[in-house]
Write a structure and sequence with these properties.
Length: about 280
């Protein structure tokens, strides 16, 4: 089953690997090459009286850095669409799933393999991307404009970005099992994960008690007289990660229960023995 999933969805696997490796390579280039060029431009501007010298130079570094984190963060939209349409929905719609269940492959094993392989790929991609992004984001803070409380930066600096991908995978699978049509399932799955993401983000500042006082430059001001210092990043981040993973676990459990219910053999009426 694992080899079959890899072979059937090798295009998606190649696209994901290329996306992660390309993002990592670009982060390294920004940090090791672009940042030096931007810094040289800013240093040269200190020796001239030109009014607009170096105007926007820092954005050549901070802008692309922000876009990398944004694309990685919102990649869970693509995961939800692919999971519901290609991974599960298409096989249910075409009947190939039921054919597989007649080849000594139980529905439970079929779904487990379908989810386990992309889950491991998502985790592996995150394990590579997150440390590199944390290094790149911290390397030249004087050139960065992104605050740690920004949604995409907040997620990309830790396991939350992987948690959203796993949640999208599970929600997409459950949606496909409910709808059993690939395109409608994809639309519904993407809508569900977007709503979930917006709802969780809305209450992000409440996942850990704020501090009363005057916020500083690197703090997250949440209201008049209250803020989150940088030391609150990990508590806030891990609480939200736990919430998203809990939703992923519930969606996965619901998918297995629904599949088991729909594939359970129908019971035949018990015949009464003749008197």
């Amino acid at each position: 089953m694992i080899r079959g999933v890899l072979r059937l969805h090798r295009t998606a696997l190649i696209v994901w690997i290329a996306f992660v490796l390309g993002s990592v390579a670009y982060l390294v280039w920004l940090t090791e090459v672009t940042a030096d060029d931007v810094q040289a431009t800013l240093d040269a501007c200190r020796d001239t009286s030109a009014r607009y010298c170096g105007f926007g130079a820092s954005r050549d570094y901070s802008g692309p850095m922000g876009w990398v984190s944004t694309f990685m963060y919102y990649s869970f939209w693509a995961v939800a669409a692919w999971s519901s349409a290609a991974l599960i929905g298409r096989e249910l719609e075409s009947g190939t799933a039921r054919l597989a269940w007649t080849q000594d492959i139980s529905p439970t094993r079929w779904l487990a393999a379908k989810l386990a392989v992309p889950a491991l790929v998502l985790i592996a991609g995150g394990a590579l991307f997150v440390p590199v992004f944390r290094w790149a984001w911290s390397a030249h803070r004087d050139l960065m404009g992104d605050d740690w409380s920004f949604a995409d930066v907040f997620a990309a600096r830790g396991p939350l970005v992987v948690a959203y991908g796993l949640c999208a995978l599970a929600v997409g699978a459950l949606t496909a099992l409910v709808v059993r049509r690939s395109l409608p399932a994809a639309a519904i799955a993407v809508a569900v994960v977007i709503v979930l993401n917006r709802y969780v983000e809305k209450y992000r500042e409440e996942y850990w008690p704020a501090v009363t006082g005057t916020a500083h430059n690197n703090d997250w001001s949440t209201g008049y007289g209250t803020y989150h210092p940088q030391s609150h990043y990990w508590p806030l981040h891990l609480v939200e990660t736990g919430i998203v993973l809990a939703v992923a676990a519930l969606a996965t459990l619901a998918a297995f229960l629904l599949l088991r219910h729909r594939t359970r053999p129908a019971r035949t009426p018990r015949q009464e023995s003749p008197a």
